Amino acid sequence: MTIQINGTSGISGVDGSAATPALQGSDSNTGISFGTDEVNINTGGTTRATVDSSGRLLVGTSSSISRAPLEVVGTDDGIGVYRFASDASAECNITLFRSKSATPNTNTALANGDAVGRIWFSGANGSGYNRAASIGCEVDGDVSGGGANDMPGRLVFATTADGASSPTERMRIMSSGAVSVGYTGTLGNNHFSILQSAAAGVLGLQCTGSDYASHITFYAANGTTKGSVSATPSSVAYNTSSDYRLKENVVPLTGAADRLNQLQVHRFNFIADPDTTVDGFIAHEAQAVVPEAVTGTHDEVDADGNPIYQGIDQSKLVPLLTAALQEALAKIETLETRLTALEGGTNP
Predict the structure, then answer these.
(1) Arithmetic mean of pLDDT, 87-101
(2) Angle subtended at Cα 288 by Cα 286 and Cα 291, rounded to the nearest 5 degrees
(3) In principle, which of 35, 61, 161, 252 could form an S-S bond with 104, CB 3.0–4.6 Å?
(4) SS3 letters for 97-155?
(5) What is the C-alpha separation between 33 and 11, in angstroms, rounded?
(6) What's the average model confidence in pLDDT over 95-108?
(7) Res 1 pLDDT > 60
């Protein structure tokens, strides 16, 4: 082959290859080669980067796997980065992808728990560069059960403690959307779980904009507020909806004393805390008298036969206690009137 140099086509006439690039220096297997609508950069007889016919810059691979204008693939761990914004509606992303194969573009499936990619944050401390934190993605389930598009993933956030040499996981967002802080799973079926092993508080909330700020607000499915936990400079209030405009069929509570006498009050200890004896109620017994104070079903179990325990909101007993006390006070006042009349020699 010959090399032609002219003012129209520049240098032409030879494409070369990775082993013998068309343009090279003193190293015969390092330089630039050409393909059909593409340009390759080669070192040591191997193509390291390619600008393909679509204008993509491919590093570590000669075959694009996405629409990204930049793809970087490592042959050791298969980590790559790409970003695309090909049209007005497309998202701009930085994506890490991985195959278990050491060969680029080879589709070897990952397994549950395998790392997909990780972003490291490092800084100089005077003696070197050390990792301060990381954000990683891991497979969060079986990739073989959901078909061609199945790739459940979780994000893992890690920070390096003072004096430590590497980051430790602090929080993860799982494929279900559940969030765990200080814990690698979920506590029960909660969507948000916090596990604190030290003596410090588990959760601290502070609002600086108002002395009567709502630290936690609870909403119904339609977005209306149903309750809150609010604080003043000196106290905390646990609030539930009670506005008269939310209620109808309002009548006085009568017969409260009779119902109150049906409540069975016990002394007991919880199995998990045998050395502490407390006063209280048994949920299903209280449920028979004040149903709204108790959640759950008596003796309920899940599909595996594990108990689903009932709970009680003892604040829901306050209306009954108040009405019973009012009835008792009314009787006391009647008796005091009669006693005063008897002592005064009159017949009430």
Answers:
(1) 55
(2) 80
(3) 61
(4) ECCCCCCCCCCCCCCCCCEEEEEEEEEECCCCEEEEEEEEEEECCCCCCCCCCCCCEEE
(5) 12
(6) 64
(7) no
- Using CA atoms, how far residue 191 sits from 178, 187, 188, 304, in Å, is 4, 9, 9, 21
* Of 8-22, 34-48, 263-277, the least confident: 8-22
Alpha-carbon distances of 234 from 202, 211, 230, 231, rounded to whole Å: 21, 9, 11, 8
In the predicted structure, residue 75 carries a pLDDT above the cut 60? no
> What CA–CA distances, in Å, run from 210 to 38, 146, 198, 204?
63, 49, 31, 17
Q: Are 33 and 42 in contact (CB under 8 A)?
A: yes
Mean pLDDT, range 160-174, rounded to an integer: 93
Question: Average pLDDT, stretch 214-226?
Answer: 91
The two tokens of residue 64 are 């694009």
Residue of 46, 38, 165, 170 lying closest to 103 (CA atoms): 46
Q: How far apart are CA 81 and CA 97, in angstroms?
A: 7
Domain ranges of the chain: 109-195, 213-246, 256-343
For residue range 323-333, list pLDDT tens digits in order: 999 999 999 99
pTM passes above 0.85? no
